[in-house]
Amino acid sequence: MNRINVLLCVLFLWAFSGKQAMGEYVLGKDTLKGITKLWVITEKLSEDGRKLGLTESTLQTNTELALRMAGVEVVPYDDPERFRFPYLYVNASIIADETSRCSYRISLELRMLVQLENGNSTHGTIWDTGCIGFCGHTRAQSVIPESLQETVNTFLNDFLAANPKAR
Fold first, then answer.
1. Is the pLDDT of residue 35 over 80?
2. Residue 131: helix, strand or coil by DSSP?
């Protein structure tokens, strides 16, 4: 029965992971060129994620801190002007079984206002990556944030390569 649950979790994550699980970028790192500021939004965690001791606030704060430490200007979430800037969308999908295992998918997307050919505009994803993983319940509070940090580092590598600081 436990193997069936794990298999179902893997299939669920695979089915809903799309490009993120493969680490593909929508348009590539060149789309990050010229971005000077961004803000971060973290999707609400599942009940399983909260039961494992994770919070949206922790994931949000960790992501913002990593960006700031790398020299990226982060617009505060409560700034009414934030909608003028691109945003980093963080989504951690977590499924825990009734024994001691959990599966997770982390998705990181940079979204910004894009102009459509018909003249309308909408928010679109211009860069994305992600990962999937498994861990025990007791390690989830450390493993999942560490996986998010690795995903944020992938973004920062591309962002900083597209926007080198003047020396």
1. yes
2. strand
